[in-house]
Amino acid sequence: MRPSAARLLNILVPIKRHWCRTVDYAVKIRVNPDQKGIDLSVKHSMNPFDEIAVEEAVRLRERLKDTVKSIKVVTIGPPKASETLRTALAMGADAGIHVEVPESAPAPEPLGVAKALRAVIQREKEGVDLVIMGKQAIDDDAGQTGQILAGLMDWAQATFASKVEVDVGKKQANVTREIDGGLQELQCRLPLIVTTDLRCRRLLMWCTEPRYASLPNIMKAKKKPIEKLTPADLQVDLTPRLETIKVAEPPKRLGGGKVENVDQLIAKLKEAGITAVAP
Predict the structure, then answer these.
(1) Among candidates 250, 252, 198, which has minimal Cα distance to 53?
(2) Domain, as residue range, for 109
(3) Strand-strand pairing, 68-77 and 9-14
(4) Contact 102/78 with Cβ under 8 angstroms?
(5) Is residue 100 part of a domain?
(6) Which SS3 state, helix, strand or coil, does residue 89 take?
(7) pLDDT, tens digit, for every residue of 172-188?
(8) What CATH number is attached to the domain comprising 82?
């Protein structure tokens, strides 16, 4: 799939909500009774990394002005996932795509999601120049979908991005990304897959306050179009290839104890079978 011919940027932002079992990040996660997953009878919200991706797409349009033609958001999930699409539309996206699946369907794996996104991109008549998505979901923490999508599309990729600058005329982007021990700057040709890191939000916050969906924008979002699709429409199979055998909470941490001096500390360590190691 080639980028759009005109020097205008079409951005696609995949987002995740209940479908990927993304529980609100402020809610304590608990294992469900059958130990096959987590308890979903709690508050759900947009995956925070995807929220950063939506914000970055909107900021790009604010910086690039009229050279950004459209921002579309796409989600895969049950009917309630449309609420998350409306949130993204209220943040500034222009239109949404909802790949709807039954509420009881199992969560798709990164490969299935990437194939669905590839099909969505290939259906876009005006093309897609830039895909911005969260680096991972906070449920399975797989962090694979962006990379798989780049491989399927044979596009450039810049993962763990903390800063994105796009030159639409040259059809290229400079992306600063997080690496061990510092930052790395990449120069990429469009079309491009970018996955956003938390540092992207921190950089944005240094400039302005975080964006919240205002009441007027929420009302406007209700009038923005959302296209309904099914996996069959995209000719993709979202059946998981993996089976979850068991999910268990980590063992509870035991309370610590206090010692009066170093000698007591050494004695406690010896009782625990811990011996000193020479540097």
Answers:
(1) 198
(2) 9-248
(3) parallel
(4) yes
(5) yes
(6) helix
(7) 999 998 888 888 999 99
(8) 3.40.50.620
Residues 207, 177: Cα–Cα separation, whole Å: 19
Crossing angle of helices 145-153/110-123, nearest 10°? 50
- 184 beta partners: 177
DSSP code, position 186: E
168's tokens? 């639409």
Half-sphere CA count of 165, side-chain side, radius 13 A: 6
**pTM, 2 dp:** 0.77
β-bridge pairing 156-167 and 68-77: unpaired
Bridge partners (DSSP) of residue 156 are 192
Q: Which tens digit of pLDDT belongs to each residue from 44-90? A: 568 888 888 999 999 999 999 889 999 999 999 888 888 889 999 99
How much is the average pLDDT of 6-27? Answer: 69
Let me know: does 200 contact 183? Beta carbons within 8 Å: no
At CB < 8 A and 24+ separation, what contacts does 164-168 make?
Answer: 164/56, 164/60, 164/132, 164/194, 164/200, 166/9, 166/60, 166/64, 166/130, 166/190, 168/7, 168/8, 168/9, 168/64, 168/67, 168/68
Nearest 5°: the CA angle 91, 24, 196 is 55
Average pLDDT, the chain: 83
If one counts every other C-beta atom within 10 angstroms of the C-beta of residue 84, the result is 27
pLDDT reading at 29 higher than 50: yes
Q: Read off the amino acid at residue 64.
A: L
Structure token digits, residue 97: 């795509």
Whether 2 is in a domain gets the answer no
> How many CB atoms are located within 10 Å of the residue 208 CB?
9
263 part of a folded domain: no
In whole angstroms, give the CA distance from residue 216 to residue 236: 37
Name the burial class of residue 67, with classes exposed (0-12), middle (13-18) and buried (19+) by CB atoms within 10 angstroms of its CB: middle
Number of domains in the chain: 1
